What does this fold into?
Amino acid sequence: QVQVVESGGGLVQPGGSLRLSCAASGSISSISTMGWYRQGPGKQRELVASITNGGSTNYAESVKGRFTISRDNAKNTVYLQMNSLKSEDTAVYYCNVVQFRWGIRYNYWGQGTQVTVSS
It folds into this structure.
């Protein structure tokens, strides 16, 4: 079992920045991709950014050039640096950790952290 804990959300003005962190612990062998998803009011959960254990990244079009995902494999931690925040970035942000054990894919989620962009 893998435990996932996010931190770093909060209230920020438009144009501001926030940094989210997510740490995985427990049975953390064979962790593969780590990523961030978000769910805004009345919307479906969507991928924001992901990063493989080799460092390959993937971003939603809406955040390209503004958000940066990074990862510290030694600490089993993934970060999301969010710059030039917009009101439409307001959402609950969830960390996702993918693990493979005996060829089976497991998805683990954090509890979510609220990001509110408002003046």
User: Anything to note?
Assistant: The first strand starts at residue 2 and ends at 7.
